[in-house]
Write a structure and sequence with these properties.
- Helix content is 4%, strand content 47%.
- With 302 residues, the chain is mainly beta.
- It has one domain: Jelly Rolls (Sandwich).
- The protein has a 7-stranded antiparallel β-sheet, with no helix packed on it.
- A hairpin with a 4-residue loop joins strand 13 and strand 14.
Length: 302
């Protein structure tokens, strides 16, 4: 007997300023949604030319960046550098410490670079791991069509309708599915039991849930599901003017305390003080931050 997950709440992600001139719609990590382990933050970002996220540190978490439009360059103090383009993802494990910059491509037509960035907590025993990156290119992502082609799913991480994702992208187990439903289409997606899950709506209106619990949700909302149940049901009504497009994410909750100070995510107040100290004294993982400046960060107009 499968049980469809009910919706705990759905709320609009309100746009705010972040970084240097960037705009983000933050949903996780706001008063609306905290303590939703393993997720720490979800930003739907829009970065126009001349804006970005210049040199900044991280410790204790993973960031997953999914680019929807444009391109974003990244560069860190270990000499790693690269670019993700529309449809690509980057999984970055900060571990014991990283300092990097994320800067948008200056599109000749002045158009914005748009994407999603999700912060995922690391289990306590991995907080001090070495930093690492994995890029996942759009062409590497397995895809599957269901409901006679009315539903298209990109299996970024996890499983959907018998299709498995590329393995070992993040340390904390997370499923990420990009789902697009044409008018009249419906999908039933299994999720691991006991995992926390949400859907973030990018466009159109999608109805989530079944029977009296069914709720239709518009653009830019975070739909938070109850932990109970093993599947999520979503459909778009026959007469809809546009497709429903959303990102469905689920993750294994971590049984640990979260003490966060900006980009440092640890388990105790002492560890946060230590992180600040290590960053300021260039030690315990931040040695290479001393005197480092990214090339791409220099493009910022001061």
């Amino acid at each position: 007997m499968t049980v469809a997950r009910a919706i705990r709440k759905a709320f609009l992600a309100v746009e705010q300023a972040e970084g240097a001139g960037a705009r983000v719609r933050r949903s996780i990590g706001t008063p609306q949604l905290r303590n939703f382990s393993p997720f720490l933050m979800l930003d739907h970002f829009t970065i126009k030319p001349g804006a970005g996220f210049p040199d900044h540190p991280h410790r204790g978490q993973e960031t997953i960046t999914y680019l929807l439009e444009g391109a974003v360059d990244h560069e860190d103090f270990a000499g790693n550098a690269g670019t993700i383009e529309a449809g690509d993802l980057q999984f970055m494990t900060a571990g014991k410490g990283i300092m990097h910059a994320e800067m948008p491509r200056q599109n000749p037509d002045g158009s914005a670079n748009i994407g999603m960035q999700l912060w995922v907590d690391l289990p306590e025993k991995l907080k001090k791991c070495e930093p690492r990156y994995r890029d996942l290119r759009a062409k590497e992502i397995p895809q599957v069509d269901v409901d006679e082609g009315k539903v298209h799913i990109k299996v970024i991480s996890g499983q959907s309708h018998g299709i498995d994702s590329v393995k070992d992208l993040a340390y904390t187990p997370v499923w990420i599915l990009d789902v697009e439903i044409k008018p009249g289409g419906k999908v039933v997606q299994n999720l691991p039991e006991g995992w926390n899950a949400f859907a973030y709506t990018l466009s159109g209106s999608t109805a989530f849930g079944v029977g009296k619990d069914q709720t239709t949700v518009g653009q830019y909302h975070n739909v938070v599901f109850e932990q109970k149940g093993d599947e999520v049901v979503a459909e778009v009504e026959e007469g809809a003017k546009e497709n429903g497009h959303f990102i469905l994410v689920a993750g294994l909750p971590l049984d640990q305390k979260v003490v966060q100070y900006g980009p440092f995510v640890l388990n105790t107040q002492e560890e946060v003080y230590q992180a600040l100290m290590d960053y300021q004294t260039h030690s315990n993982g931040f040695e290479r931050a001393k005197g480092w400046q990214s090339e791409i960060g220099k493009s910022m107009v001061h």
